Amino acid sequence: MHQYVIQGSTQRLTVGKIIGLARTYKAHAEDMHALVTEEPLLFLKPESAVIFSGGSIVIPRNSHCLHHEVELGVVISKDGSHIPEANARDYVLGYLVALDITARDLQAEAKKQGWPWAIAKGFDTFAPISDVVLARKILDPMNLELSLRVNGQLRQKANTSLLLYSLDHIVSFVSEIMTLREGDLIMTGTPQGVGEIKAGDILDARLEGYCTLHVDVH
Ligand code: MG
Questions:
Q1: I need a labelling partner for 35 at 20 to 30 A (CA). Which of 13, 21, 165, 171 fits?
Q2: Residue 48 CA to chain centroid, in angstroms?
C-alpha cells in the first residue's frame, strides 16, 4: 500500500482506488482523433501503479511506446456516493500533479479490438504522483497551470480552466457510479501535447506554484 505525502500535514492517508478520466480537454481529444462525449470516459488504474517523486517509470517488456499524460489529481477526503455538485468540495482533501502513463501501442490495439484499457494503463509505476496540496491552500482549482517538461523541454502546458467539466461535476459524476472513499484519487485527464517517453528521460511535472513531481524512465 502507498501513503500520500500531504504538504504541511502529518496526516497519514492510504492511496485508494484511482479513477482515470479521458477526453476532458478538447484539444487533447482532437489530437487523439477522439470524440468528446457528453460525460468523460472513465477507467480504473490500480493503486499498485503508484510511484512518488524520485521514482522511476519502468518500461514493460510488451510495450514499445509509452506516453506521458500530465494531469490534475483530486484526492478524496471522506466516503461519499451520489454527491451533489454543490457539496463536491466537501469531499476534496486536496490536489496533486499526476502522470497517467499509458502504453499507447497497447491502448491503440485495445481501442481497435474493443478491449478495456486496464493493461495499457495498469502496469506498475504507471501512476507517478506528487505530494498533496491541501484544498484550502488553493484559491481556485479551476485556474491552475499544469506543465510537464521532459529533459528540460516543455511538452505539455495548460490551465485547468480548459477542462470541459468542472471539478465539482467530475466528483459528482464519479460518485454516481462508484462510492468514493477517503484516499481515492481522481486523475482528471490530460490536456494537449502528450508524447513518447524513452529510457533515460527525466520528467518534471508541475502544478505551478504548488507542487512538483520528478521521475525518470528505466
Ligand atoms: Mg489520462
A1: 171
A2: 14
- The residue with cell 494503463 is 121
Distance 6 CA to ligand 1 centre (A): 23
CA 211 – CA 141 distance, rounded (Å): 13
**Residue 108, SS3?**
helix
Could you tell me the distance, in angstroms and rounded to a whole number, from the CA of residue 161 to the centre of ligand 1? 17
CA of 72 to the centre of ligand 1 (A): 10
Q: Convert the pLDDT of each residue in 153-177 to its tens digit.
A: 999 999 999 999 999 999 999 999 9
pTM of the prediction? 0.96
C-alpha to C-alpha distance for 175 and 154, rounded to whole angstroms: 34
Give dist(CA 187, CA 20) in Å, integer.
5
12 C-alpha to ligand 1 centroid (Å): 26
Cell, residue 184: 481515492
* Phi, psi (degrees; rounded to nearest 5) at 32: -90, 5
Ligand 1 centroid to Cα of residue 62, in Å, is: 20
